[in-house]
Design brief:
The structure holds two protein chains of two kinds.
Chain A: E1 2-8, E2 14-17, E3 23-27, E4 33-39, H1 47-50, E5 55-60, E6 66-77, E7 80-87, E8 101-105, H2 107-121, E9 126-131, E10 138-142, H3 146-157, E11 160-167, E12 173-180, E13 186-192, E14 205-207, E15 213-218, E16 227-231, E17 240-245, H4 251-265, E18 269-271, E19 274-277, E20 291-302, E21 305-320, E22 325-331
Parallel strand pairs in A: 9-12, 13-20, 15-17
Antiparallel strand pairs in A: 1-2, 1-5, 3-4, 3-21, 4-7, 5-6, 6-7, 8-10, 11-12, 14-18, 15-16, 19-22, 20-21, 21-22
Helix pairs in contact in A: 2-3
Chain B: E1 3-8, E2 11-12, E3 19-22, E4 34-39, E5 47-53, E6 57-64, H1 69-82, E7 91-97, E8 103-111, E9 116-117, E10 124-131, E11 135-138, E12 142-148, E13 152-159, E14 168-173, E15 182-189, E16 197-202, H2 210-215, E17 227-230, E18 233-235, E19 238-241, E20 249-257, E21 263-265, E22 277-282, E23 296-299, E24 302-305, E25 309-312, E26 317-321, E27 340-344, E28 348-352, E29 379-382, E30 399-401, E31 405-407, E32 429-433, E33 440-460, E34 467-472, E35 481-486, E36 496-515, E37 528-539, E38 545-546, E39 552-563, E40 568-577, E41 582-586, E42 591-593, E43 604-608, E44 620-628, E45 634-640, E46 643-645
Antiparallel strand pairs in B: 1-2, 1-7, 3-6, 4-5, 6-10, 7-8, 8-10, 8-11, 9-10, 11-46, 12-45, 13-44, 14-41, 14-45, 15-28, 15-38, 15-39, 16-20, 17-18, 17-28, 19-20, 21-22, 21-27, 22-26, 23-24, 23-27, 25-26, 29-37, 30-33, 31-32, 32-37, 33-36, 33-37, 34-35, 34-36, 39-40, 39-44, 40-43, 41-42
Classes of the chains: A mainly beta, B mainly beta.
Chain lengths: 333, 646
């Protein structure tokens, strides 16, 4: 069963509802997209409804609601118009902090500050909700877009951010942005061929850079050259890299970065196209960051031969409402 | 159902003289064409993931009844002229149900091919049309007048079709409520030809006499019942001026000001009649113009609501259709050609009188940072400050930029090179700079600043003072324009006053910069401090606010319409109207509007099962339930057309 698709103005006031079959994606720490069509003969094909900058909230009975901002492309076809919308952090690409401002604090505190800068210029409707302020406190000089700084802080410190539409009791929309050490939960969801997942042309691909040794170095330009390293014994031998980290970092922080970088890359990344149907409570467990199990009987190497059984983390999904399927993008646990 | 085809648009295809129309047995029509979407499970069994209802076509046959070739050719030509594939018009194909006393139904669609001669026939033509929706729709609309005289009531409606139907509700409050009387005051915030953006605006620039309203029993003495509703949604508001229960209450809220070109009336309007359209002239610009439908314009002291809008950028004309004069409690008046016309793109009401309303929750996070007791739309005055990083940016708190020492206590508590802290809101906002620092405090107003006044204090520890400037942007690639350079304090280690008063070209941001690069490095390291206690910004293009009249008695629905069969509920969330005004909730088009066409979607909410539609009527009898606080006399007209599969 689908749900309401409501369009809100730039100030978060509901304007109208549309009937449309939406294809929408949600991505962890990234920007998903939605596409839908409106007939040009429809009463909904009005500029004030489909204006760039308006927000659309797409609801579903099992999947989390989706919210995005209408933006180009707007493709006019014969008899209908194709509308695109992007998840709201998209707007942060077009907000800039004061040039060369120095911000300091934990990753969460810097995230909060950057979000304030974004709303300083024009309200994005994004509101920080749960902000974890753990992690090493550093300072950085900001000059790029708010989005690129938030993305960089998130990547460097392994924090996740997730956006959710909030419709207040008065009907107005805001978008809650959570800054988390790790989004999602471990679920009972088991993805199994023949039960709830599609078997693609390339069901499993192992890829990525293998690293068994990391030397973490503080930025020499910031008075650094402090180093710390971490390594593991790998069957493929030594694969060493040297990573330079900006900010005023102590040896313990560098050691943590090195350990984390090795653990992240000591095994190849596994990618598998996972198109799932809502069998049982499958969709109820599809949330960004959630961990599920998947099983293949004749793919990948196990200790005893072929066959894999592994936990995966949901890092994105794309729901096609007309097909009723959800394509998952997954990563390592 | 056994359908006998009747007409296509106005054209009779089954008159028994020229044409006989039939649906051939075995022709696949209607909903049989749903496409299953199977999920490939590799070596496992495929799974049905869903299905897609593709566009539906309907094929029928028309036989020519002429008994001569000449007659048949004429009939054929007439028939062909009615079914042209390049004709984009949507028409109705009517039919009568022989199983139900010739009850009429119709399909709605468009011809997609010319009539094609059937195989082995000389006078029988196949015709195919593409349908809007794959259902027979009941030709006669059903209508039930549901009269309600208490807070709750039920009404049965029957959908004779075999698929869900979509109702249209028209609500009219015939009399006021039994217990409460609420009031509303329209506020017109006009679109600006100069700028757009969301800012705090005083909705009552002349001051609202809440003392007299409270004395008259129309408002609670606490003012907790005073709400601001914009396009149907309650917004946070703050009271300024002298506060509640005074003659000078000012109501502040954030308003999204739109951009609209300056318009003038093209043709004079008399003081009594309402034309079909009102045409305005404007100066064409390169910027695209967007004017919403179903909003309001102001000409002189009269408000006129309108329906559709047509913009002719080549001619510089804007045409407002279906105008309703003396709207929102304003008075009708004559207007000369050339009179200024202002667009009021938002429906803003100040509502009061409901004692059950919850008191607004104070929110420092979103409260405008300006002094609401002293500020006006023309002049923003800061007497206390928020630390920018601690408040949401849209509060228009000062912004701190570039490395430096920022503080919020007087004289920084005696500290020079560290921050004593911020108690939000702070009495002062200050910066301290050393040689490598260039701290900056900026203030802004989206509607542009034309004059700035700053009062505060300054301090130096060494021989030289920092380069303290007030500047504005010089444009892309150009250095900033210095409006003022603050002289050094006469004496070291002595706090001396700062008093700046300078006009500026209209800009949206001004910066006070304390450039420490001139301070030197002789130990002890020299420090310069500047702190602000009062800041005043004169607005170059202040928002224009228009209040047409005294408060009006309003009627507020605060309940729901619920279909007890399928748990579809439409919530009327403090839906503001007035007695005898028709409110339409159209579940066919998913549109809700008041009598003047104003969209009221913001005052609806929905509960019950997850669904695409606001409400459906299931086949058979549906029990509708209405509930509203203290209703005494409401009529709901329920209209619907049944739908049957083809």
């Amino acid at each position: 069963m689908a749900g309401f698709k409501t369009i809100f103005g730039r100030d978060g006031i509901p304007i109208t509802d549309v009937r449309a079959s939406v294809v929408r994606s949600s991505l962890l720490n990234d920007i998903g997209e939605a596409v839908f069509m409106i007939a040009t003969s429809s009463v909904k094909c009005r500029r004030e409804y489909l204006n760039y900058g308006n927000y659309i909230v797409v609801q579903h009975e099992s999947l989390p609601p989706w919210v995005g901002v209408i933006d180009p492309p707007r493709v006019w076809r014969n008899g209908y118009v194709e509308i695109h919308a992007f998840e709201v952090p998209f707007l942060l690409q077009y907000r800039f902090p004061p040039l060369n401002m120095v911000i300091s604090g934990s990753p969460g505190e810097r995230f909060q500050r950057l979000l304030d800068f974004a709303n300083d210029q024009a309200d994005t409707l994004l509101r920080a909700r749960t902000v974890m302020t753990t992690g090493a406190a550093t300072e950085e000089t900001v000059s790029e877009s708010v989005y690129s700084h938030i993305k960089r802080i998130s990547d460097a410190n392994n924090f996740d951010w997730i956006c959710s539409p909030i419709i207040d009791s008065d009907g107005s929309l805001t978008v809650a942005m959570d800054w988390l050490e790790r989004a999602g939960n471990v679920t009972d969801l088991e993805l199994t061929q023949g039960k709830n997942i599609l078997y693609g042309d390339v069901p499993l691909e192992e890829s990525g850079e293998l690293i068994s040794f990391v030397e973490a170095v503080s930025d020499p330009q910031e008075g650094g050259a402090l180093t710390s390293s971490y390594s593991v014994d790998a069957e493929y031998g030594l694969r060493a890299v040297r990573n330079i980290y900006t900010g005023s970092l102590e040896a313990t922080a560098l050691a943590a970065y090195a350990t984390e970088a090795v653990n992240k890359n000591k095994q190849p990344s596994l990618s598998t196209p996972l198109t799932v149907v809502d069998y049982g409570s499958t969709f109820e467990n599809i949330r960004l960051g959630n961990i599920a199990k998947y099983k293949y009987s004749n793919l990948g190497f196990s200790e005893t031969g072929l066959g894999m059984k592994q936990h995966i983390r949901i890092e994105g999904f794309r729901f096609d409402e007309s097909l009723g399927t959800c394509e998952l993008f997954t990563g390592k646990v | 159902m056994r359908m006998s085809l009747l007409t296509w648009g106005e054209f009779n295809i089954n008159d028994g003289v020229n044409y006989k129309a039939t649906t051939p047995v075995g022709v696949g029509n209607g909903m049989a064409s749903a496409i299953p979407n199977y999920i490939d499970m590799g070596q496992g069994d495929p799974v049905l993931g869903g299905k897609t209802l593709s566009g539906t076509m309907y094929t029928f046959q028309v036989q020519l009844l002429g008994d001569t070739d000449v007659l048949r050719e004429a009939q054929r030509d007439s028939l062909v002229s009615q079914f042209l594939p390049n004709d984009r018009e949507i028409k109705k194909l009517y039919a009568a149900d022989a199983d139900n006393e010739d009850k009429q139904w119709y399909l709605e669609g468009s011809a997609i091919s010319q009539p094609i001669l059937a195989e082995n026939s000389l006078d029988l033509y196949n015709i195919t049309i593409a349908l809007n929706v794959p259902y027979w729709i009941e030709a006669d609309e059903n209508e039930v007048a549901w009269n309600i005289f208490s807070s709750t009531d039920t009404q049965e409606v029957e959908n004779v079709g075999n698929v869900a139907a979509l109702p249209i509700f028209e609500l009219v409050a015939n009399a006021g409520k039994s217990s409460i009387e609420t009031f509303k005051l329209f506020v017109g915030v006009e679109a600006s030809p100069f700028w757009g953006g969301s800012i705090p605006i005083d909705l009552t620039p002349e001051g609202l006499n809440t003392q007299s309203l409270i004395t008259a029993g129309k408002m609670l003495s606490s003012g907790d019942d005073l709400r601001v509703v914009i396009d149907g949604v309650s917004r946070r508001r703050w009271l300024g001026g002298d506060g509640i229960n005074t003659e000078n209450t000012h109501v502040w809220t954030y308003v999204q000001v739109s951009i609209c070109p300056t318009m003038t009336l093209a043709t004079a309007l008399d003081g009594s009649t309402t034309p079909a359209t009102i045409v305005c002239s404007f100066s064409p610009t390169a910027t695209s113009i967007s004017i919403p439908t179903n909003k309001t314009i102001r000409i002189g002291s009269e408000l006129i609501s309108y329906g559709a809008v047509t913009i002719d950028t080549a001619q510089g004309l804007i045409t407002f259709s279906n105008p309703v004069r003396n709207a929102k409690g304003s008075q009708i008046a004559a207007h000369l050609a050339g009179s200024a016309v202002a667009l009021i793109p938002l429906d803003i009401w100040i509502i009061f009188g409901d004692p059950a309303i919850l008191a607004p929750v104070p929110s420092e996070d979103t409260e405008p940072n300006i002094d609401l007791g002293l500020s006006t739309n023309e002049e923003w005055i800061y007497t206390t400050f928020y630390k920018a990083s601690g408040a949401q940016g849209f509060t228009f708190a000062p912004i701190f930029a570039f490395p430096g020492i920022y503080y919020g206590t007087e004289h920084n508590g005696g500290l020079l090179t560290s921050t004593a802290g911020f108690d939000v809101p702070t009495e002062v906002v200050g910066v301290a700079a050393q040689r490598t620092m260039k701290p900056t405090i900026s203030f802004r107003h989206t509607g542009s600043i034309s004059h700035v006044e700053i009062a505060g204090e300054k301090y130096r520890t060494g021989q030289t003072f920092a380069n303290v400037t007030l500047s504005i942007s010089g444009g892309t690639g150009n250095p900033r324009i210095i409006l003022h350079t603050e002289p050094s304090p006469d004496d070291a280690e002595t706090w001396e006053p700062v008093n700046i008063s300078v006009p500026c070209p209209t800009v949206s941001e001004i910066r006070l910069t304390v450039d420490g690069s001139v301070l030197g490095t002789t130990l002890p390291t020299p420090v310069a401090l500047v702190e602000l206690t009062d800041v005043s910004l004169t607005v170059a293009h202040p928002p224009v606010v228009f209040l047409p009249s005294e408060e009006q008695v309003s009627y507020e629905y605060d309940g729901y319409i619920h279909n007890n069969r399928n748990d579809h509920q439409i919530i009327l969330r403090k839906l503001i109207t007035k007695t005898e005004e028709v409110i339409t909730i159209d579940c066919v088009d998913l549109e809700a509007y008041s009598e003047d066409g104003k969209r009221i979607r913001g005052m609806l909410d929905f509960a019950g099962t997850v669904r695409d539609d606001w409400m459906t009527l299931l086949p058979g009898v549906n029990e509708l339930e209405f509930w509203d606080v203290d209703t005494t006399d409401v009529t709901i007209t329920v209209r619907w057309r049944a739908r049957n599969t083809i």
